[in-house]
Design goal:
- The protein has helices spanning about 95-100, 110-120, 140-150, 165-175, 185-195, 200-210, 230-245, 270-280, 295-300, and strands spanning about 5, 10, 20, 30, 40-45, 45-50, 55, 60, 75-80, 110, 125-130, 155-160, 175-180, 215-220, 250-255, 285-290, 300, 310-315, 315-320, 350-355.
- Helix 2 (about 110-120) crosses helix 3 (about 140-150) and helix 7 crosses helix 8.
- It is built from 9 helices and 20 strands.
- With about 350 residues, it is an alpha/beta fold.
Length: about 350
Amino acid sequence: MSHIVSARYWHQLDDGRLQCDVCPRHCKLSDGQQALCFVRQRQGDQIVLTTYGRSSGFCVDPIEKKPLNHFLPGTPVLSFGTAGCNLTCKFCQNWDISKSREFDTLADSAAPETIARAAKETGCRSVAYTYNDPVIFLEYAVDVAQACHEQGVKNVAVTAGYICQEPRTEFYRHMDAANVDLKAFTEDFYHKVTGSHLAPVLDTLKYLRHETNVWFEITTLLIPGENDSDAELHEMTGWIRENLGPDVPIHFTAFHPDYKMRDKGWTPHATLLRAWAIAKANGLHHVYVGNVRDLDHSSTRCAGCDEVVIGRSGYTLSDWNLDETGACQSCGTKLPGVFEAEPGVWGSRRMPVRLRDFAAA
């Protein structure tokens, strides 16, 4: 299997350079040049994807780790990523993968059909495109997603949402769920800390809510002194309520010092609880805290009667009080999300997978 394939979404400029149109960065490439994401490159008169079929590794995770709390709770998800990223976040928590420019990072190789087979045979209900942003390996992700759907396996994108309109339409046509990383709610933060812009991410969120059937949840990593002020949290959660509605779950997660932002301390638990309270006060029904041990604020409560409908201890389900239709057993209020009659029982296990064990003979 060739690891270099023709890329989609680019055009030639008047000066002879080729412009990549996958994300709003619009990298303009002379022959041989790589885009900022590292995986898209100009070769001759075309742009190619150089990492098709190559991964930084495969692992079965709990779906709650993505994090998704309202999508097939308790089920296992086969997770993988490649290398590179189209953002330059100074606080990247997966920098060894997303910032890698070494093909040695891509230790595992797999055709789309092999990934789908591995997911099916390991009992995974879905495959997650994660660790680095799947929009940069769109061609590979779409082929894998199609193979998964043929096997009855769903697809999950873990993404920053930084993608242009036309590729976004194709990409999400093949996704069943997404977790979108809303990194902050100021253009200043996006520009200085991530090397990108806020508006395209908000456009992606509105697109998902109003123009697709993709189930999505939002994650914001709270960094002390950077994106955790009361004013910013109020503006963010108010925007979500007004533009996306009260039922979109949001996860406030704790930062730990990493990559180029080691001068910041860990996020205090009190900051997460403050964000939780602001979001609830702004009318959001399903608010969670993450990267900390907090049973009360990681469990799902019914928006109708406030009873716990899905209890969680870490990534393990401790309570299940939904009927077979996904409604609260106490008051009958339907919980928004994608649920089956019974929850999964995967728990908090993490199981590495060798894809060559599932390759066709």
